Amino acid sequence: MKKKSAPQSAFFSLRLLIGLFLVLAGSAILFASSLNSPGSATAGSATAVQPGTPMPDVVQLIGPVTLNTDLRDLPYIAPSHEFEEKRLMRYPHPEIPTPTKPTSAYERFESLMKQILSPLPQMPAPLLTFDGMNSAQSGCMCLPPDTDGDVGPSHYVQSVNSSIKIFDKNGNPLNGSNGTTYNSLFLTLVGTPCSGFNNGDGFVFYDQVADRWVASDFAFPGTLPGAGPFYQCVAVSQTGDPVSGGWFLYAIQHDPANPTWIGDYPKFAFWNSGGTPAQNAYYLTINLFDGPTLAFEGVRVFALDRGSMLTGGAANSIAFNIPPAGLGDSYSLVPAGFRTGNSPPAVRDEFLLSVDSPATGGVTLTQVHGWKFHVDFGTPANSTLGIGVNHSPNANITVAGFVDAFTTTTLLVPQNGTTAKLDTLGDKIMTPVVYQNRAGVESLWASQTVLLNYPNGPTAVRWYQFNATGGNFPATPVQQQSWNNGNDGLWRWMPSIAVDQNGNMAIGYSTSSATQQPSIRYAGRLAADPLNNLGQGEAIMTVGGGHQTHSSGRWGDYSMTTIDPVDNLTFWHTNEYYPVTSSANWFTRVGKFQFPAASPTPTPTPTATATATPTATPTATPAPTPAAPRAGKATNVAASSFTANWRGVNGATGYRLDVATDSSFTNYVPGYQDLDVGNVTSKDVTGLAARTIYYYRVRAYNGNGTSPNSNVVQVKTRNH
Known about the structure:
Number of helices: 6
């Protein structure tokens, strides 16, 4: 949450006039908002339901406003100076650091020896790192930065509290050294706080199926405590180009029935399982707090109509409130999204996870809670979340015991050279759940921060794999671990997890100790490694050159690890660090790495099932993921068509074809993005323009995964 240090009213009239001018100049259309009370539905969706069945809220998003302006041409609307006054939590804890005892010379020596004598890591070194946004560029005086980001075919888009900054994949900024502020991006959403009152908690992700970007933050006038009103601002790119391709802008009030409630710590995920009704939505989760009192009110879960938002159409959301009675000691639900592997099976409901955050520290917890969200935009009354009137979890998964990373405070992480400690955020799963469907085995991957040796520490990265084949939560994980790299004494926290197309997993996170500056590291495992361990060890992405001395201790709030959709193998991670010691002048870093191409691709691990008698029949192992095919010269070239050709590869059961008007594949020919053409080695491409240059590439797939892209072939259609 932010404390405003500059009044906003003096700017509002100017922003409103600028916004109105841009609306008229760009012929943008702002649709009226229809804010229905709980239990209401849109016209034509009245469907009989059983008495006592919880009804969803159906709320029409404000917008869209169509923004056709290149981001580099937007007027610069500076963010208001913001500062995190207090982190809103399920049960508030005093944000007072615990005392730090002096570090002895022996402890420093012991820490150094553990680093020297630790096993040689096999984790690959970064392929590239570059600086993202920093505090000075953000212009908001924010602490922490809320570092988030995602990667697409040609861009890396990073978000911090105030802004998004867009890079090419070599780290060159494309929308200016200071990026684009959320105030600039959402300026034309006049009549809502999104026009001039953006307040942070930014989030950005790439929709690899539609080749679109989604960026969002929340907005409200005034300060906290305060009465709002409180809104979520959502931008969906019109194309795969986030700089010049245009955006559709939307806004939605966090809870129209409770206008003084704010939605904190928003998390998004993309889910599209198809079928009837299609579970096709951008899922959003927020923690609800009363603005004037900051009292916890529950969790709100939204399904935003992705299909309509991709076309810039009027869109509804379907939302449920989970009251504290349905949450127990948990909050901060995180939705599941997918990037690699196959899409979820038809009509598969969205998954959400959370962990408990008790009122007191030191409690050993043994459960992860799971919810299923079924959405029906055609008949909203058929939508369901969880069980019963309080939307209780569908399942409670039993896991190895852990302790949340707090004592009487969350300011626990020591730093070298200072008594100032850092915030663990150790009371939640921080980043959206990773869903993967490989050879019919569906899995959910999640991570959190836990505290070892309570209350002394250090913190460690707890991670899980839950198999959910058939759409059901398991009783126990397939694997889990509290990763401390052989108990080397380093504090690890702020984790974010990702899984490549071969089932190899990596986690990026922050590290620090009384003898080391805060830094960025990552660790991982190959799918063939023994269970319950990050068998490839740890690598360093960025070594911090200093530490944070500000007494608030706020750090990160977010980090993010994602998979490159071009090859489905390269991991990208972004996080916070300090190159030099300062009070609050943070920096961020972006880096990428990849497991060796020859990494084994084993059979996906099935859900563990106890059996008294071993099966004598050997189990067939799926063929390895096929190699990339070789695309050949186009044939049968005409004015409006040509035949794309390629060589078949061993083990492939089919091929996927891309056709675009640019070699970077940001402008696809309609109908030819990731087109499944079956097990053939040629495809007629039709409906083209004469005298136009086109590009195509292909990928091979089988039940175990999809290959990297082939080479790119250029072809020019004939004149007539």
